[in-house]
Design brief:
The chain is mainly α and 194 residues long. It has helices at residues 2-31, 34-58, 66-72, 75-93, 96-102, 107-139, 153-181; strands at 63-64, 144-145. Helix 1 (2-31) crosses helix 6 (107-139), helix 2 runs parallel beside helix 6 (107-139) and helix 4 runs antiparallel to helix 6 (107-139).
């Protein structure tokens, strides 16, 4: 009985170490990629800046209500899911996923680590996006962030959960559509490593 427990402990320890290595690899690859920083962090901030600028020029209300502020932030989950899905597809085309499979990495480890790193970048993107929007609203007298203090913690929790789910949905959707367009199997690119 003790031998079985030790074997199970050894296997779970190996799986944890392997998962942490894959997580570290995915994190390093995305942190060192300029495309990730430009498209996930900078582009949503630029789009929010343009939207707020147009809002201040052509709107007669001059008040940004909380639903409008939340809508400004929606570019972050969409772009994060899209870029991380493209990273997986690029790794598949460069046979990086096949090399990872030969050393025993499971597809769920790649998927989970990619989604965890995507959540980190999503958080950074949302914070930068909100900061740019807030600073522009503070420096531009035509824009006023009204009723922002009325948002409760439940609204912020709902917003974070919705952003993560939207990012994951767009991740899977982009993966599926890229495989469909390439006329490959109708599976997710990280699950079929052929």
């Amino acid at each position: 009985m003790l031998k079985k427990v030790n074997v199970i402990d050894f296997k779970t320890t190996v799986v944890k170490k392997q998962f942490l290595k894959v997580l570290n690899l995915v994190f390093k690859l995305n942190v060192t990629s300029e495309r990730t920083w430009v498209l996930i962090v900078t582009l949503p901030a630029i789009l929010s800046f343009i939207s707020l600028y147009c809002f201040s020029r052509y709107s007669t209300l001059h008040r940004m209500l909380p639903p409008q502020i939340v809508c400004l932030m929606l570019t972050s989950p969409l772009l994060t899911g899209f870029i991380f899905s493209l990273n997986i597809i690029e790794w598949r085309q460069t046979y990086m996923l096949r090399r990872l499979k030969t050393i025993g990495v499971k597809p769920w480890q790649i998927l989970t680590s990619s989604l965890l790193v995507a959540c980190i970048f999503l958080t950074i993107s949302l914070l930068v996006n909100f900061l740019v929007s807030y600073l522009l609203a503070k420096t531009t007298p035509e824009i006023e962030f009204s009723n922002l203090s009325n948002l409760t913690s439940y609204v912020w929790i709902w917003f974070i959960i919705t952003s993560v789910l939207m990012m994951m949905m767009f991740f899977f959707l982009t993966s599926f559509l890229c495989n469909f367009i390439n006329k490959k199997t109708l599976g997710l690119s990280f699950c079929y490593l052929h």
